């Protein structure tokens, strides 16, 4: 049964910003496979951070850590999208075509080998002990003087030293297969020892300074493993609380949130929705602001009357322009649908209190499990690539297959899927063969659409207009996003909106990371 | 989008009973495989009937026809259940254990060969021409005299002749694979020629007298085929209208409707629900009646406070006693969830008007398609039998697999399924093997539970307490019924009830059959 868990929202709020997200820039990905784990540069963040957050789900373990740097990484690691870094800039939602949503090309879930000389361990943690030393020094020395003991580095830069409270640094994101949790442990071990080396402190000192903020089910299952292997403090945080905390954080990062606008790019429909002529940038927000809870842009766009008739959902829904939210504002209340191995559906109230109201066991693990058995794909991303080349009508039973025509009286077109996999039955004990591409396309669509349908019904039940989809199932895959988005658009008759996040899989881990900032602060100020 | 189609309810209503269902008796099955297609004896029905109804869905074609007889078939074809045949009898819901719900043992969908000497063609149609002749004779002869031209036969009995308006006869039910529609056509052809022979009329005369009432998608797809092969009139009826008509009919047949009562037989739970002590027969309806819309028994039982805490749905939910509705009363408003190859969800208002409000493509065709590829089962029933011997925890990822324990804060037990098929992923490109039994159990549960969840949300949205599940997916299979029923019980906290029908797959065909009774009547009386 779902349980109401109320907690006070702490981040981001209008009054106390623990993580200063002003001017945050999403760094461009190094390769398509790292699309969802590109770094976020926070030019204004000052608080010292020396902990590592890890969210261990049923299939993937997601890691977040922070490395200091006064400057964003140089080109080619420039900002991937236009960040709203200056407050004087007139900011409007940015619209791009869906093809700009990169589909991962290299399908393997990366398991970086931290021992293979660098890899993605691109920065070092700042041990708190150095901050404490620095704090003591600051009382004796001029704040402008250099502190030779502080080595916050991005390895791409030469080392430098700055006063304790210089701002700037990057959030780093990594993921590993839970089934291969040892790779995750080894990565963190390498990060810790590297940080000790870079900062010139002993490994014992570094370990005392570092803390693991663990969430997700694996935080419990692997608690002892992390403690014993890493010899650092491990703190466990509630999974749902971290998800919500993470959602609140990410919705404050410019260009993190995106959605399909009402601008129709192409339609498989012969009904041309009225909304076609609506310019995407119709709604202009004058002042970018990280803290003023003005009317959110998606909400104001929803005032536009929806198209009079929407085609039923299908694997090839009408295509709409993608809009990035460059001017983020608080997005509560909302529904959060987190699609990992399974699916959790969480209602978030305006004050940040929340309840897990629903869920389904038909999630990413189901799709990947089925397609593991039914296709030669060896990874989830390979399966996504297969689905791109598929035609579901070879395996799905369409209305036309049953009726020989449309079911006009109910407005069900002949191309509508009546029964997923309805053509794949044995006849007289013999089984025909089907293309892996068609199987992948059918099941990816069916799973996504089912989640969209259940999400819609919950949003309807609780009167929520904004539905955020998170979790590693999404993987920035255009077909998945379009299906989820269109399901919400269709069932809600355009009154509700599906919203997505570039770092969709990292809500829990960033939430756990943030929770420690809070607790550190309350500890240090008590 | 769903379209509202309003039509005036014609059957059964309190004032005009076209099909007299008083005293209706469900005949016992001849074998487990015919569980859902056992005949219904109508001792009081008088209207002449010479048409055949067929509902052709994506996977199955369902046939209904009527054969006259003044007496119910003799033992061993006696009534399967106690019918409420006398109005003076005090009637209470009958409670039986779930094991009394027979699970089909012979797994093949029967495709009777009508040419193999008898088979299930157990009776003959009465050609209308004979009724018309009889009608003319009746004006000249005493109504008590025997008419030698009228031969309504059950072949098990010797021939007899009776006046036109003697009451009694049986509804007969047959199903065929749509993929093998020729077998269905051949069966009807045999029925027509046999009826001509038995009644001593020419085949041409018989064909002029017979009509096919066709519904379902195949009514359109196979319209020409039926007309050309059978050389009889074929009339097409709307699928949804027939479903609702059929539901209204079946809910008037004693012992047709059944549901799980609040009487707990055994529970996997350590929480013992309060409702355990509630006697099933607590709510006694004094007067059986087919026409007085009194408070329905299921409704009155719903007044009982629900158990305080229900375990989450699982493939092994707590077991409740099965109650047959021996004293049927009109059951509107309600939600009808028809699970065929796909799923239609229809809201039915108190006045009989209805709207297809939702549906899902994840239905019987999906399950059977997946299991065709994933198991050696050659039929749907064989797959159901496999699932009985399965353990889903070998393929599903449970909360305990992720957490190593319960997720106590949210009340999610370690045995709860977090991700269906979540353990079935390839690792390093190699695929482990899984037992067909475990695969069947997992997917049957997941599909059933998903339908139950979507059904519940629609019932909630429209404020409906009664949810009827129809369609050939159910097949009287105890695990399917228990899953659907428990999903409704759990999600609605005991405030809504799942109801089932013995002839679950024949709603559309019986609806089409009844619609012709109406039109015949209006034609003959105009």
UniProtKB/TrEMBL annotation, chains A, B:
Superkingdom per UniProt: Eukaryota
InterPro entries, alphabetized: ATPase_NBD, Type_II_PanK
The name this protein goes by in its record: Pantothenate kinase
Polar residues bias: start-end ranges: 82-100, 275-286
UniProt-annotated stretches for the region Disordered: 70-123, 275-325
Any one Gene Ontology molecular-function term assigned to this protein's record: pantothenate kinase activity
Keyword vocabulary terms for this entry: ATP-binding, Coenzyme A biosynthesis, Nucleotide-binding
Organism of derivation: Ephemerocybe angulata
Gene Ontology biological process terms in this record: coenzyme A biosynthetic process
The organism's taxonomic lineage, starting at the top: Eukaryota, Fungi, Dikarya, Basidiomycota, Agaricomycotina
NCBIfam families attached to this UniProt entry: panK_eukar
Coiled-coil features, chain-numbered ranges: none
């Amino acid at each position: 049964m779902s349980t109401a868990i109320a907690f006070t929202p702490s981040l981001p709020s209008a009054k106390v910003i623990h993580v200063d997200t002003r001017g945050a820039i999403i760094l461009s990905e190094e390769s398509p496979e790292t699309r969802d784990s590109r770094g976020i540069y926070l030019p204004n963040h000052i608080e010292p951070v020396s902990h590592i957050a890890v969210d261990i789900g049923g299939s993937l373990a997601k890691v977040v850590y922070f490395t200091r740097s006064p400057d964003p990484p140089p080109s080619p690691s420039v900002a991937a999208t236009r960040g709203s870094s200056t407050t004087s800039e007139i900011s409007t939602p940015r619209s791009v075509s869906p093809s700009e949503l990169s589909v991962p090309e290299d399908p393997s879930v990366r398991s970086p080998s931290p021992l293979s000389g660098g890899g993605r361990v691109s920065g070092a943690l700042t041990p708190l002990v150095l901050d404490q030393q620095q704090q003591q020094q600051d009382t004796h020395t001029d704040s402008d003087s250099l502190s030779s003991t502080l080595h916050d580095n991005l390895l791409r830069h030469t080392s430098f030293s700055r006063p304790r409270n210089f701002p700037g640094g990057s959030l780093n994101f990594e993921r590993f297969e839970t089934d291969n949790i040892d790779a995750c442990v080894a990565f963190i071990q390498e990060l810790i020892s590297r940080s000790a080396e870079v900062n010139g402190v002993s490994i014992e000192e570094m370990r005392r300074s570092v803390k693991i903020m663990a969430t997700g089910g694996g935080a419990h299952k692997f608690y002892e493993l992390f403690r014993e292997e890493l010899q650092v403090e491990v703190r466990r945080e509630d999974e749902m609380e971290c998800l919500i905390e993470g959602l609140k954080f990410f919705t404050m990062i410019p260009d993190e949130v995106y959605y399909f606008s009402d601008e129709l790019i192409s339609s498989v429909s012969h009904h041309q929705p009225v909304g076609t002529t609506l310019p995407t940038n119709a709604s202009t927000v004058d002042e970018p602001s990280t803290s003023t809870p003005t009317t959110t842009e998606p909400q104001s766009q929803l005032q536009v009357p929806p198209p009079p008739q929407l085609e039923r959902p299908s694997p090839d829904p009408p295509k709409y322009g993608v809009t990035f939210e460059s001017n983020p504002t608080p997005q509560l209340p909302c529904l959060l649908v987190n699609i990992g191995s399974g699916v959790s559906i969480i209602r978030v109230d305006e004050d940040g209190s929340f309840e897990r109201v629903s869920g389904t066991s038909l999630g990413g693990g189901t799709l990947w499990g089925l397609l593991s058995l039914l296709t030669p794909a060896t990874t989830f991303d390979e399966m996504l690539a297969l689905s791109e080349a598929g035609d579901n009508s070879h395996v799905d039973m369409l209305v036309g297959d049953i009726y020989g025509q449309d079911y006009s009286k109910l407005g069900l077109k002949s191309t509508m899927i009546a029964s997923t996999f309805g053509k794949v039955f044995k006849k007289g004990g013999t089984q025909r063969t089907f293309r892996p591409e068609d199987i992948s396309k059918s099941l990816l669509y069916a799973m996504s659409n089912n989640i969209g349908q259940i999400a819609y019904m919950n949003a309807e039940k609780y009167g929520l207009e904004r539905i955020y989809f998170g979790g590693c199932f999404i993987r920035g895959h255009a077909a998945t996003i379009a299906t989820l988005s269109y399901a919400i658009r269709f069932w809600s008759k355009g009154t509700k909106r599906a919203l997505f996040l570039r770092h969709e899989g990292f809500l829990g881990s960033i939430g756990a990371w943030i929770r420690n900032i809070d607790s550190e602060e309350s500890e240090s100020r008590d």
